[in-house]
Amino acid sequence: MELRQLEYFTVVAEELHFGRAATRLQMTQPPLSQQILLLERELGIKLLKRSKRHVELTDAGKVFLQEVRRILTHLERAKDAALRAQMGILGRLELGFVGSATFDILPIIVRAFREQYPDVDLVLHEMPTPKQIKAFHNKSIDIGFVRTPVVDPLISHLTIQQEKCIAVMPKSHPLAERTSISMGELSTEQFILVERDIWPSWYDDILSKCYDAGFSPIIRQYVKEIQTIVGLVAAGLGVSIVPRSTANIQARDVMYVDIRGEAPQVEMSIAWRTDNNSTLIKQFLDIATRYIGCAR
């Protein structure tokens, strides 16, 4: 059974006249009649009652017509969906992100993408950068908001944000009302830091800047998320160094203070597999590039 035979049968059933059906299909009548006979023979069912002056559907033909119309409708939808997927306006993107991306840049880019491509199913997974690297390798995510540097030949990335870090401390801290401090003024403080395995480059940069300022930090607590840092600082358990965008977390009992001179810096990038040429990824990168200025 061929698709064109189903299309031929539908037109004949609508016209109930082989001549008019042939004209509609831009073909001659004999091959059209032959194709309908072949269809009936293959099905083993009489679909049409024919006479020299009259054509009508059999009861089986009426039922078959209903089902064929459904098939043709579904095929048209499938064709349209495939075309839209090829154009990058339909499909599914698995997106990984570090928690700190939600402070400012992720909502802006995701909202803009969803507005422009509402039929793309965007599935978000929160995970630290090292886990995203593994996810890229096993192809469980397509796009990632990661903390760079990332050195992996499998992964390409586009830098979308660079931030200088600031200090966060309890509101009652003697330095909390200052407009800025030096790294050296934190030498006697107890620090709350994100675990090195979660964000190695940032952890190492914080320690390096402390050493440059003449001290080795006293680390009281390790955590997995920047949001947790802010909560523990609010509880009076210590101070920390965080990306500037963290100040978007409005915690009642903490203060954010600028650091003068050489402060740790962090970088956010969008990453993807180098060998993935998906149109959807290109569309997402186009949106991200367009909105970088808004997110900085």
UniProtKB/TrEMBL annotation:
Question: What's the domain of life for this entry?
Answer: Bacteria
Name the chain's protein. Transcriptional regulator
Keyword DNA-binding included in the entry's annotation: yes
Quote the cellular component terms of the Gene Ontology held in the record.
protein-DNA complex
Q: Does the keyword Hydrolase apply?
A: no
- Domain HTH lysR-type: where? 1-58
Family listed: Belongs to the LysR transcriptional regulatory family.
InterPro entries in UniProt: LysR_HTH_N, LysR_subst-bd, WH-like_DNA-bd_sf, WH_DNA-bd_sf
